[in-house]
């Protein structure tokens, strides 16, 4: 077996480990594109991560971003100008993503919209016969993640979740070391999200800015009176649209916690936190500590969100720490790891994408560009088995964040059944597994 084939086999086996219900279906690859056929992509949501999506696709051979879509025409015009300056070619603009779905010339949909749009847009794209790259978190609630899996399978589409560290050779190497027992039996993972999140104030209500289709921006979520507290970035800190920082930056780390421990969703969850710094309009906690217990596997996940000034842990402020009975492994960011062995914490193996990893790839060749390259390869071959971040990871990593948020909001320890994806004898918590959708923007209860 070649090194590349071995890598793919390893990624496929570990990408969705921990949940028998989420095994990928038997799939017979079929070529949808020739090696040099151009793939046309549309990027939906261009204010933040969408800029990276544009760059990621345009870095791929025979891939062309042909359409930018955003409910804010002001952003679209700015994006069109920047696109022309950078790539010396024109790009079409569209405010309504439904017209993008109807465009037969578009092969791939890339989603960098607010969280509350991710699942429905993914489902619509699958129904329209388009493959999807969806930014983290894949879903806004747990039910949506399951619907995304059903849509990808029913309509036979390629869906990649934007957890780009899965395409880092160094992180793949770190996971393989843990699977081989390098730090012993790995029993605990710690996720770290220590990010600078400042005071956003309270801007109050105001008229909808000219050029913004606020109804489309709202989509499946409740339509609140317009405020700049939401549009364009601070929706992250409001429950109807975002999921706090554990559901923002934190999805990279929830995903890696589960991947490294080789587990699915937990059976017991507790969370505690709050707002301690700013008297602003954020609804989500500034500080949040969540514990996810796996009694049957004798494993546990600790996850912590901290804002503003804080100390690093193990040298990392955004990353993961894995604890085994022979040592521990620290992941710093997206493409670097270190190990420490024994009671004296003797430095062991380490790697990054700058060449220390076994792959010898240049630093950054994993990460974002590598993740887009992996997606495009899967699209060309119409082979979901080679995806580094398949749709199942979107459901699981997002689901872990959602469970922690539900436990925080209800203020009690929760028991969860991963097989039924319901809470145990807790109708109040079950209501938070889904939401009420606005007419015309409903996520189906069943695909």
TrEMBL record:
<keyword id="KW-0732">Signal</keyword>
<feature type="domain" description="Gfo/Idh/MocA-like oxidoreductase N-terminal">
    <location>
        <begin position="39"/>
        <end position="162"/>
    </location>
</feature>
<feature type="domain" description="Gfo/Idh/MocA-like oxidoreductase bacterial type C-terminal">
    <location>
        <begin position="206"/>
        <end position="257"/>
    </location>
</feature>
<dbReference type="Pfam" id="PF19051">
    <property type="entry name" value="GFO_IDH_MocA_C2"/>
</dbReference>
<feature type="signal peptide">
    <location>
        <begin position="1"/>
        <end position="32"/>
    </location>
</feature>
<dbReference type="GO" id="GO:0000166">
    <property type="term" value="F:nucleotide binding"/>
</dbReference>
<dbReference type="InterPro" id="IPR019546">
    <property type="entry name" value="TAT_signal_bac_arc"/>
</dbReference>
<dbReference type="InterPro" id="IPR050463">
    <property type="entry name" value="Gfo/Idh/MocA_oxidrdct_glycsds"/>
</dbReference>
<dbReference type="Pfam" id="PF01408">
    <property type="entry name" value="GFO_IDH_MocA"/>
</dbReference>
<protein>
    <submittedName>
        <fullName>Secreted protein</fullName>
    </submittedName>
</protein>
<feature type="domain" description="Gfo/Idh/MocA-like oxidoreductase bacterial type C-terminal">
    <location>
        <begin position="371"/>
        <end position="441"/>
    </location>
</feature>
<dbReference type="InterPro" id="IPR000683">
    <property type="entry name" value="Gfo/Idh/MocA-like_OxRdtase_N"/>
</dbReference>
<dbReference type="InterPro" id="IPR043906">
    <property type="entry name" value="Gfo/Idh/MocA_OxRdtase_bact_C"/>
</dbReference>
<dbReference type="InterPro" id="IPR036291">
    <property type="entry name" value="NAD(P)-bd_dom_sf"/>
</dbReference>
<dbReference type="InterPro" id="IPR006311">
    <property type="entry name" value="TAT_signal"/>
</dbReference>
<feature type="region of interest" description="Disordered">
    <location>
        <begin position="345"/>
        <end position="365"/>
    </location>
</feature>
